[in-house]
Amino acid sequence: MNDGVLSSRFDKQAEETMRRNGFRSEFGDESREQVVELAHFDLNALAGEAQDLRDTLWSSIDNRTSKDLDQIEWAEQLENGDIRLLVGIADVAAYVAKDSPIDRYAEQNTVTVYTETRIFPMLPEELSTDITSLVEGADRIAVVAEMIVKENGDVPESNFFRAMVRNHAKLDYESVGDWLEGNGETPQRIAEIGGLEAQIKLQNEAAVRLGDYRARKGALDFESIESSAVVEDGEVKEIRAVRPNAARKLIENFMIATNVEMAEFLERKNVASLRRVVEAPERWDGIVRIAAEYGETLPSEPDLPAFSAFLARRKAADPERFPDLSLSLIKLIGAGRCVVQRPGEDAGGHFGLAVNDYAHSTAPNRRFTDIVVQRIVKAVIVDEPQPYTPEELDAIAEHANLQEKAARKVERRMRKIVAAAVLQHHIGQEYDAIVTGDTKAGVFARVLRPPVDGMVVRGQNRLDVGDKVRVKLLSANPHNGFIDFAAE
């Protein structure tokens, strides 16, 4: 995926798709004027009484081309075997005032939308990729999550505070992942900075502890394959698969731990906040059916430990095809939603992660809900009145859910347009696919290699979500993104 705006023939289609789905695609004059003002803000004045942790050996791991860096990490080995883990989250709220022009734009879009050829940022890029981004070598303000990770992966203690920080090394998933898995040399930045190799290895140990702890509680370990378009001179050359690795798992485990601890912290402080909820699957019967195809029996009612154990066995038995199975099951579980957690109430947990409390907090440069939660936690830290009423949070959550669905539509359509540009030269070719949807509009399937989606227009009546199927490509139209298959 290209970073920023790529001048290509797909830009107009992307902008039209954004507008059609209720998004703004350009910042207005008021937002631009606010950006100019923000560029002259005094960092020390904004930091106030924040701790000074700029000499701490912070680093980040993200996509190689990413500039909107939300998170940095650091770990410390304690004498009793515990690991003290710090996760710094970009303090976007320090710059973006509530109800300011930039805030209203972010509240409308709610998310950064990533299409194959263009990124539509939720915040002006001067902020998200610079002023509020935790870029390498720059002094920034962060909201820090401090967690004690026990040897068994439990986190009995956590705290949140503000700090001045400096990212000492921007690392990427690919090189760090290969290195951690023993398939590559030490990344150059890690080799150049004294102490960083031991630091990343300690972070990985903390991440493994956290992941293993959730696994023992029944967390679902899926493995998905994402697509990334390779565009040269305005033309799509190919679609590559992006697979998970140890570095992505490291950041994922830190993100989950931070969001869990944030939710529990705000619950202890007795304030309303936003949560991410994934309920038990309504299509559990479909999951039971798929398990039976592998000779496995799952309970008739949703059972997280049994489900998790089934996944672990299948991953061990057939790791090469495990992403295909993961896709089938993810579609049957369904998407999560944003809800309001009121004091004394139970908003629900996250089925797939096996946690009771999960906040939106670790991506404030990219998600409006995370800015909202950041304002809430900062008010708690300094003992100020809460910035939102529960009723205001209800409206934010409802709109965020609608925009999240809309963003998926935009991203899915643009993936199909880009994929059609590649597949139009392969009419008649057959592919392995998985049925991903059965709606009024039709039956949809995803080709596994390359990972692209289309409609099954022939032989679709016998198919159900999660089914594996062999399909033949009938047509691919890069102007509207229509890709049609026939089920064999």
Notes on the structure:
- It is a single chain.
- The chain has 488 residues and is an alpha+beta fold.
- The protein folds into three domains: 11-268 and 360-391, no CATH class; 284-334, no CATH class; 424-487, Nucleic acid-binding proteins (OB fold (Dihydrolipoamide Acetyltransferase, E2P)).
- The protein has 14 helices and 17 strands.
- It has helices at residues 11-20, 29-38, 43-47, 101-109, 125-131, 173-180, 188-192, 196-216, 246-268, 284-293, 304-317, 322-333, 368-381, 390-423; strands at 51-52, 58-62, 71-77, 83-90, 113-114, 119-120, 139-149, 157-172, 226-232, 235-242, 273-277, 337-341, 430-439, 442-447, 452-458, 468-477, 482-487.
- Strands 1, 2, 3, 4, 7 and 8 form a six-stranded mixed sheet that branches. A five-stranded mixed beta barrel has the order 13-14-15-17-16. The chain has a two-stranded antiparallel sheet with strand order 5-6.
- The longest helix is centred in the C-terminal third of the chain and has 34 residues, at 390-423.
CA radius of gyration is 23 Å
Q: Counting H and I runs of at least 4 residues, what is the number of helices?
A: 14
Distance N to C terminus = 32 Å
What kind of oligomer do you see?
A: single chain
- How many structural domains in the coordinates? 3
- Strand segment count: 17
Mean pLDDT: 91
* Poorly predicted residue ranges: 1-7
Biggest sheet details? 6 strands, mixed
Which percent bin holds the helix content? 25-40%
Strand content: 15-25%
Structural class by helix and strand composition: alpha+beta
Backbone shape = globular
